[in-house]
Design brief:
Layout (H helix, E strand, L loop, with lengths): L2 H7 L7 H13 L7 H22 L5 H23 L11 H10 L8 H13 L17 H12 L5 H13 L2 H26 L3 H28 L12 E3 L4 H4 L6 H6 L8 H14 L3 E3 L2
Helix pairs in contact: 1-13, 2-13, 3-4, 4-5, 4-6, 4-10, 6-8, 6-9, 7-10, 8-9, 9-10
Length: 299
């Protein structure tokens, strides 16, 4: 009998805290390991589509009205494969395929203009300090409601120096290692390249094209990413601790359009579990999550 099956057959209230944790880990272990080929294919396919938009749009073969929504979808899809790499899910340092892990990590977020190493280090800070008002670099998404978060996020993105960028910069400064300083320098280089592309193409008479390829998709796509990857799974972002700093939730958009974030609580419990296994792992772990007092809003 599998570990997950035993959950249905036992009164979890009779288990000690240690026994409950051991049962939880034994179930989670069955969903760990292996190569997440889906995420790897996702990373390179999405990047290839985004890169192909450039010659098609600049040559006039693809109209701007078609470019903007496609590029926005590319931005929305760009983060999660890199997120898998940030947690060394594809391979750890010293393993044979670590080069592939890093390649996915660096290339996947190119449509977003995001530096992988900075994202990795600051994301670890989020896991360590989720919902901490001072130390969680993602705390700026904390809002009273979903619409409040969207309006606030758009406002921050239109600032000269967005508040979210300041939070990530402060997190890197707190880390203070050579890796963190290099990551900060690379992030600055990414910002300079982005501005150079925007102004350069505008100067050459392609302002609308580059706005459709980069500027507008990064604003719209960025809101979408932060809504579902940060605000929704942490709202109201006031509790801390292993079983309370995130939640499961049901969305009208379903699991695919929320990019799997309905089950984000599984990720915070087991960060090295591949994203595509979260739904099955959640179903297996749900009785334990209920026993632990986790927030499972409608799911």
């Amino acid at each position: 009998m599998s570990a997950s099956a035993t959950v249905q057959d036992r009164d979890l209230r009779q288990l000690s805290t240690h026994e409950l944790l051991r049962l939880e880990r034994s179930i989670a272990e069955t969903f760990m390991g292996g190569l997440p080929w889906g995420s790897i294919a996702w990373a390179f396919t999405n990047l290839a589509v985004w890169l192909s938009l450039w010659p098609l749009t600049l040559s006039g073969a693809l109209p701007i009205w078609a470019t903007a929504p496609i590029a926005t979808v590319n931005v929305i899809l760009a983060y999660l494969p890199s997120h898998e790499a940030q947690h060394r899910i594809i391979a750890r340092e010293g393993e044979r395929l670590f080069w592939l892990n890093e390649l996915v990590g660096h290339l996947s977020p190119v449509p977003m203009g995001m530096a992988y190493e900075a994202a990795r280090l600051t994301h670890y800070e989020h896991h360590k300090h989720a919902n901490d008002l001072e130390l969680d670099p993602d705390i700026n998404t904390r809002s009273d409601s979903g619409w409040h978060m969207i309006v606030k996020d758009i406002g921050m993105q239109l600032q000269t120096v967005p508040k979210m960028n300041t939070a990530y910069g402060n997190a890197l400064a707190r880390i203070g290692t050579d890796d963190a300083r290099r990551a900060g320098a690379v992030s600055l280089a990414y910002a300079l390249v982005t501005n150079a592309l925007l102004f350069g193409f505008a100067w050459a008479g392609h302002a609308l094209e580059v706005a459709a390829l980069m500027w507008l998709p990064r604003i719209v796509g960025g809101v979408y990413i932060r809504f579902f990857l940060s605000w929704a799974p942490h709202h109201p972002a006031v509790d801390m601790g292993r079983y309370r700093d995130t939640r499961g939730f049901r969305s009208r958009l379903g699991n695919i359009l929320t990019m799997g974030m309905q089950y984000h609580i599984v990720h915070h419990l087991y960060p090295r579990m591949p994203l595509m296994r979260h739904p099955a792992a959640f179903r297996a772990l749900r009785p334990i999550l209920v026993a632990r007092g986790c927030r499972l809003d409608g799911i």
